[in-house]
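Hello,

I think I submitted the T4K job twice by accident. Can you confirm which output corresponds to this input? Input:
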Amino acid sequence: MELAVFSGRPAFEKPLYVGQPAIEPQVRERFHALMEEAFERRYLTNDGPLVQRFEAEIARLHGVEHCALVANATLGLILVMEALELTGQVILPSFTFVATAHACLWKKLEPVFGDIRRSDFTLDPDQVEALITPETRAVIGVHLFGRQCRVERLTEICDRSGLKLILDAAHAFGCTTGRRLEGGGGAAEVLSFHATKFFTTFEGGAVLTNDPELDTRIRLLRNFGFVGHGRVDFLGMNAKMSEASAAMGLASLPEIEARLEEKRMIHGLYRKEFSGLEGLELQVLPKGGGSNRHYLVALVDEDRFGLSRDLLYRVLWAENCFIRRYFYPGCHNSAVYRQLAGARTWELPVTDEICRKIICFPTNLTEPEKEVRKIGELLAGIQANRREINRWASLNPAR
Ligand code: T4K
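Support: Only one job matched these inputs. Its output is below.
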């Protein structure tokens, strides 16, 4: 095998991306039909009939009282914090997409980063307990890569300490508890329907809650704070979902089961293909289903694999296999949060270790058997050539 870093042809002619959306032909058909309806009505946004239908479906599927659709999950998180009138400090993991932490800053809240559990990469409740101060007002748990954070323990800690619990469920759509989609924990749970997610509405999100007052406030806040024509009682913003996004959501709902099945099959292929590879540790998922398996996550042990994660990343990108390092380098290592911390240094050893080792492989594949086999062969070839690759990297340092 002639690797692309050694001037061979890239293994993949058609690039592979993590997060490429699934858009089945029947989804396109249903979407176009729903859009025709919207065009006929000439009603395109502002709590239209498609948004209302989609909200009712999402609430029903999750078994929650209220679902308020929003333009994206980042705004959803900001609206929840505004609706809860939070001030002071919020404890959250650094190992998350920056949007979780950014939402706190937009609300002028102080983010306090807790470390994660190595077993599932989610916020460690013991860390939360240790970080609570008189200034703490809320905790944000993040469900990551199809695994729920420790909702029960976080709920118990928050209830005992008088804190609000917000759940960033951007990755969680399609994850199940029993036969129901997960949702409804904490004060509110926020889903993302971004293009890269298991279920997409182009851009979009949803705030799930069982608290009617919170739901009402979110609805007012997402629409500039209007309480009636010509009457604005709150500092709201524009965070509404459009009819086009709701049409995409409604068109995609019938595909959930088939997508879950497809992801299960693809995970199985990867597990089989990677089983003989030394130094590549696949994420452990809870037994008996539950995860949407949207992300295929592994940790690279440099000593055992023979290559650092970053070098493997370079070599695979050269092969047109655009794997990702979510969520390297961790929020606490991003310039925004380093400057903010001032004299404070974050001790997050597990986060730092996972950020150094993590790698995400593509799971939306057009020819899964062929593509996963090729990725497996590629990794085996890379491992077999590890000495030459390390030598090449020392002569060609990453810029
Ligand atoms: N909380 C968590 C835990 C999150 O992960 C996120 C978002 C949020 C909150 C906030 O949710 P939203 O406000 O977005 O609703 C992407 C997404 O933009 C982001 O939504 C997502 N998490 C994050 C995990 O991934 P990037 O910076 O990696 O995006 P980008 O443009 O590099 O694309 C990622 C990959 O997807 C590439 O391999 C290309 C591929 N792609 C992308 C798009 C947009 C496609 O194949 N088709 C597409 O249409 O953040």
